[in-house]
Amino acid sequence: MNRISLIIAALALPALALPSAARAENEDILSGIDARSKEAADNARKIWEWAEVGYQEEKASGLLKQSLRTQGFKIESGVAGIPTAFVAEAGNGGPVIAILAEYDALPGINQDAKATRSPIDGKQAAHACGHNLFGAGSVEAAIAVKKWLEKTGTPGRVRLYGTPAEEGGSGKVYMVREGLFKDVDFALHWHADDENSAAARTTLANRSAKFRFRGVSAHAAGAPEKARSALDGVESFNAMINMMREHVPQDARIHYVITNGGIAPNVVPDFAEVFYYVRHPDPDGVDAIWARVEDAARGAAMGTGTKVDWEVIHGNNPLLVNEPLAKMMDAKLRQIGGITYTPDEQKFAETIYASFDKPSNKLGSQAMIQPYSKSLGYGSTDVGDVSYATPTVGLRTATWVPGTSAHSWQSSAASGMSIGFKGVQVAAKTLTLAAIELYTNPELRAEAKAEFDAARGPNYKYKSLLGDRKPPLDYRK
């Protein structure tokens, strides 16, 4: 352990200095998570195989609900107008602690659980962000916390939120907007990764939309003067945005993909569509850039003789970090420890690792806990909106081979086998200890809520970056 890690661990010691009876209770609860490791792995593997994309996660949602129902949770399905969203609750009185669960897959990528590039024929999506692990691990934590509440008689409720369509669908935003977190005292989450860390890392706010250009079709050679190409509109729009990149703040991100550009070269397309993301650390920054993007779309349509409209698909606020909670989570993660590979897993990992060019983490670091820090991350998540509704904290575990990037075939491969499943166990145990700490430590609860109130400000009013639109249940169809 390096010097920074030792300092942080020392600072966290009071939270870990439990009476012997409490330590024994915790150890018993953690042993219970180990005893259910096969069920957790089976759930993670099934969801990995199904690879259902956003708002279509019927099997995954049903499986997780069934696991919770058999453990005595009360289930409310179809919340916030989303058929695959649900809330499961157990316990009575006391603080309400939410645990978030995701389970949507990514379209456009595909990989078997093998250490070399091995697409599965006919499969159009994969769990290349590890949400199959996220869902399974969070459910195990919720079950363990319920058992602890019952065994100790501690007043409190644990609530598992089944949250669909994190990948570009903002499922949690609609749940926040519907007030489903109003009575939650704290929210816990985790994510698959190539390292173990509970660092306080914020995210970028973002918004996306599909820009649809409409023109006039004609024979591209026989009557080009009669046509107005919708694809010209898209390409002109993209050219303007690519020039605009030079004149946006350094931390901003803009990216796109053409989802429809026509079918045949000799037919001038009368319809074309491009899907855009805009990101910035501040929601106001997203708004400012977005206004310029809309102006560029109008200009592209005017210049090409086409028409354009757009549909906002999703939008997320940045993650509001809470350092008292983050330091507590860091201490719990260090108590649990990292990942140890079997010989077969080591061989798998070495083969995966050889496919990387200049990996950011070294093979072997899966056994370590990264130093605590506070930083800006460049991804986006709808957990951000939850973090403005209630104090929120998370962690990441080494479910993937060190050096693996999210949204890659390597991450999908590890998410479907034992390396990923071991990360599930670390996450479930850490989340369970964090929840227990929050139930039993009123000083920590008060400190975290004070920081939360100060960070939001006295006149805070929630604003969704996706406006008042209904959930885009067909955005992946």
UniProtKB/TrEMBL annotation:
> Which Gene3D superfamilies is this protein grouped with?
3.30.70.360, Zn peptidases (3.40.630.10)
**Which residue positions does the secretion signal occupy?**
1-24
**Protein name per the record:** Amidohydrolase
A Gene Ontology biological process in which this protein takes part is:
folic acid catabolic process
Keyword Signal attached? yes
Q: Which keywords appear in this protein's UniProt record, sorted alphabetically? A: Hydrolase, Signal
Native source organism of the sequence: Parasphingorhabdus halotolerans
Q: What's a single GO CC term here?
A: cytoplasm
The segment(s) forming the Peptidase M20 dimerisation domain are 208-298
Q: Tell me, what is one Gene Ontology molecular-function annotation carried by this entry?
A: para-aminobenzoyl-glutamate hydrolase activity
